Amino acid sequence: MPLSTDDQNKKELIESIRAKIFKEYENLQSSLVDESGLSVTTALDDSDIEKLVLDVLEEAKTPISWRDLKIIFQGIVGEDRLRRILSGLKAKNEIAELTHTRYSLPKYVPQEELNKVKNPVVMKKLEESPNDDIN
Question: What is this structure's pTM?
Fold first, then answer.
């Protein structure tokens, strides 16, 4: 059964975001070469992964599902660590969690879904901050 236009557009968006984030991930990694010539690549710390998650949500400009986030971050960070990073960002009120395990930057939560935000304090923070990101 062929994909609907919406499903195809979503798939293309996810693939585009994944390619961009993977490139950012590779730029953030640092490689060390020891005396024997062995190259060792260091793992990213949580703040680097947080930045990548925020970049994904900014690029998407719409709520994105946990399933799609797993696809985007496959090979970059494991599911448990990604879940922990999302929980941390949610606790710091940097991201909104919506029903059906979807995540978004507060400014991209659709008006009709404001009542579905599981951490509504994040929306108050958005209202209080000056809106300098208008495009």
Answer: 0.82
